[in-house]
Amino acid sequence: MAVRTTSSNLINRTMSSLRGFPTYSASRLRPCSLSVTPNTIAAVQTEPSKDDIRQPRPLQALHLKPLKRQAEFGVPSCDLQLRSFSTQPLEFFADFALRAAYYLGLPAYGPVPLPRLVERWTVPKSHFIFKKAQENFERVTLRRLIQIKDGHPETVQLWLAYLRKHQYYGVGLKANFWEFTQSGLDLEGETGDARMQQLDASWSHLGQKISLGSVSKVEELLNSQRGKQAAGLQRSPAHS
After folding, report:
1. Model pTM greater than 0.70?
2. What is the rounded distance in angstroms from the CA atom of residue 66 to the CA atom of residue 59?
3. Which domains does the chain have, with CATH numbers?
């Protein structure tokens, strides 16, 4: 059986459903004006999202290659050799050393891969009846070279000390350090004797033997009670 719905029935049902809602007269309704300016549109369009926020520079630099400074004269100051049995810690610490050199103002070059060191050992596999069976062991050492040029000696020493303090496990360090002085007359050598005389008082306190001094001090030491007991003398020695 088909049910026909007329427009009057729909109006009655709609009115009955709206009886519980409050009604407003036309006098109580006020027009609302919304002002939209170009600045408002630009602010809505340029609102940054979480993906668009820029990371801090030090954190962003971790994903980039380490920065390097250019040497002016190209005079080598230090050769740092890194050694390890695996590649990952070696590459990680080489990157760390380059970044530390950049922030200390040192021109660093590298890392340059060096030839591998391959060591092999052949030992008996077991004892007694199995001693004829032998077993081979192999150890491969990976190396990288970082060179510092035009570096101040104190700055290079500070760089090496910082690397030793934060040395990564499984990575060995070997450094060759050069220090240069000006050529020509050694003007500082003229005052070398005067400096050595100033250090005599300090050097006299080092070592097991103390300088005896003059002849009178030696005679006074021998005539003392402790000197007599040590030498087995009951009376002071006669003067020659």
Report:
1. no
2. 12
3. 59-177 (3.30.70.600)
The tens digit of pLDDT for each residue in 138-157 reads 999 999 999 999 999 999 99
Q: Give 82-140 pLDDT, tens digit per residue.
A: 999 999 999 999 999 999 999 999 999 989 999 999 999 998 888 887 778 889 999 99
Q: What is the CA radius of gyration of the chain?
A: 44
Determine contact, residues 73/150, Cβ cutoff 8 Å.
yes
Cα–Cα distance measured from residue 94 to residue 98, given in angstroms and rounded to the nearest whole number: 6
Residue environment code for 153-189, b if the CB has 16+ CB neighbours within 10 A, otherwise e: eebbeebbebbeeeebeebeeebeeeeeeeeeeeeee
Beta-carbon contacts of residue 228 (< 8 Å; ≥ 6 apart): 222, 234, 236
Contact between residue 95 and residue 171 where contact means Cβ atoms under 8 Å apart: no
| Token output for 209 | 């033997």
**What does the alpha-carbon distance between residue 105 and residue 186 come to, in Å, rounded to a whole number?**
30
How far apart are alpha carbons 121 and 136 in whole angstroms?
6
- For residues 22-26, average pLDDT: 54
